[in-house]
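Local shape tokens

___
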Amino acid sequence: LGAAENVLDPVLDSAGEELQTGVNYYVMSIIWGAGGGGLILVQNWNGSICPLDVGQSSSDMDYGLPLTFWPLENDDVVRVNTDLHKIKFSSTTTICDQSTAWEVADYDESVGRVVTTGGAGGTFVNRFRIEKHNGFPSLRAYKFVYCVAKMVCQDIGIFGQNGIRRLALRQQPHAVMFVKAEGSQIRKVTSDFTS
């Protein structure tokens, strides 16, 4: 087989366009209403301010904050089932003096492993991926997974705690779609850190 025949399918946004490397996208729940809205930054699960965790707005009318995606391989598009070097909230100023790139926090008995920020990008053995979500075959539905050593991958779902929805490693994946963020849609970050 030639190299061109081994290329994986691109991730498609809500308009059916290829997900572009380094371009702003909102990550929205594929389920409207009770499924919640877009991804946001929330107070750390343990009550500290920093690092901020990756959460989900409870309102399906809130697109959340735009993110950019950076594949490990030098590619202009993000492809299904390929390792991502970095997932990062873009143009976001926060009270924490650290990166808004995703990473997975150490295991805690009460919450498991939560997706948080402060990462520098994927390590040699730990990476995020975007995969097709098989629960919605007629839609452009995807899920995030977190892989260790390219062999053991776990779905990323929603963990609710004290009224705050956080991304965490879970058996039930959170089904998402990607909506390209137009310049006029990007809003200034205002985070509410109340419990």
Remarks:
- The longest strand covers residues 152-161.
